[in-house]
Write a structure and sequence with these properties.
216 residues, mainly beta, Jelly Rolls, eight-stranded antiparallel beta sheet
Length: 216
């Protein structure tokens, strides 16, 4: 068979490369979305005890009153399914909080939908420490400390959940076909919520952001 003319071969190669580029773009992460403006709680809605959250020095402070259960939900019209979430967190000694994901707003009670990524370096009653996928994959010794800012990264893609603290993987979980997670929870879609836990000292959150994955 005769070879294609050089110009035709170049055109075919160029079109093929463009097609690969479009395919890659279709599956590339979306832009980062800032969830907190650093000044107000605009875009967030608290349950039960709104006074348990306030803004201090560019951070959301959870459990200001310290004796009320409450959750601060991010308001979004489009739920998050496959995503990467990142925040900077600082815990005070004896504090307990959590980052819920794939959840939805409810007026009271512990969130019945979604998962909790634990925030607890030294809260005595609960041995599930920071980085735990609460009740499913628990972490006993996290690589972070109280009184220090650390990076908290969540990535959910399909049935796969990865939790990293300061870029170190502490949870790598793939949901089985017939999962039996805590409370019958299953990977789905939803929003985020920060927890204010009773009898806990303060937890600080700043630079909260998220980007969607695998969306055209």
């Amino acid at each position: 068979m005769n070879a294609l003319p050089r110009t035709v071969g170049f055109a075919v190669t160029w079109v093929f490369a463009i097609g690969l580029s479009f395919a890659a773009d279709a599956n590339s992460p979306g832009p980062w979305i800032t969830l907190f403006d650093g000044k107000t709680l605009n875009g967030w809605k608290a349950s039960e005890e709104p006074g348990s959250f306030e803004v201090e020095d560019g951070a959301i402070v959870a459990n200001v009153k310290g004796n009320k259960r409450s959750h601060l939900f991010y308001e979004t019209e489009k739920p998050f399914k496959d995503f990467e979430f990142e925040a900077e967190v600082k815990t005070m000694p004896g504090s307990n909080s959590g980052i819920y994901f794939q959840t939805e707003f409810q007026k009271d009670g512990w969130p019945g939908k979604g998962f909790e990524a634990q925030v607890n370096n030294s809260f005595p009653p609960d041995p599930r420490r920071t980085g735990s996928l609460y009740g499913i994959v628990d972490v006993a010794k996290p690589p972070v400390k109280d009184d220090e800012w650390f990076k908290y990264n969540l990535r959910v893609e399909g049935k796969h959940i990865v939790i990293k603290l300061d870029d170190k993987t502490v949870v790598d979980y793939t949901e089985p076909d017939q999962p039996k997670p805590s409370g019958g929870r299953k990977i789905d879609q939803g929003t985020f919520a920060l927890q204010s836990h009773p009898d806990s000292s303060k937890v600080y959150y700043r630079n909260l952001k998220v980007r969607r994955l695998n969306e055209n």
